[in-house]
Amino acid sequence: MGILSSTVKIFEQSSIILFGIYSSIRKYYTPLFQSIIITL
């Protein structure tokens, strides 16, 4: 039971980290992609 709860905790933390990375990438690269699309 302890192994399961620690695995769930690790999964939650990694998903939060991945979501933060994804949102920061989207925030910085969306204007870049839009400018590329506009120039095309």
Task: Please characterize this protein's 3D structure.
With 40 residues, the protein is an all-alpha fold. The chain has one domain (1-39). It is 95% helix and 0% strand. The protein has one helix and no strands. 0% of the residues are buried. The model has no long low-confidence stretch (mean pLDDT 89).
User: Fraction of residues in helices?
Assistant: over 70%
Q: Ranges with pLDDT <50 over ≥5 residues?
A: none
What is the end-to-end distance? 56 Å
Shape call:
rod-shaped
For the record, the count of structural domains works out to 1
Number of helices, counting only DSSP H or I runs of 4 residues or more: 1
**Which structural category fits the helices and strands?**
mainly alpha
Mean pLDDT: 89
Tally of DSSP β-strands: 0
How is the main sheet built? none
Over all CA atoms, what is the radius of gyration? Answer: 17 Å
> Strand share of the residues?
under 5%
Q: State the order of secondary-structure elements, H for helix, E for strand.
A: H
Task: Note the topology.
Layout: H1 2-39
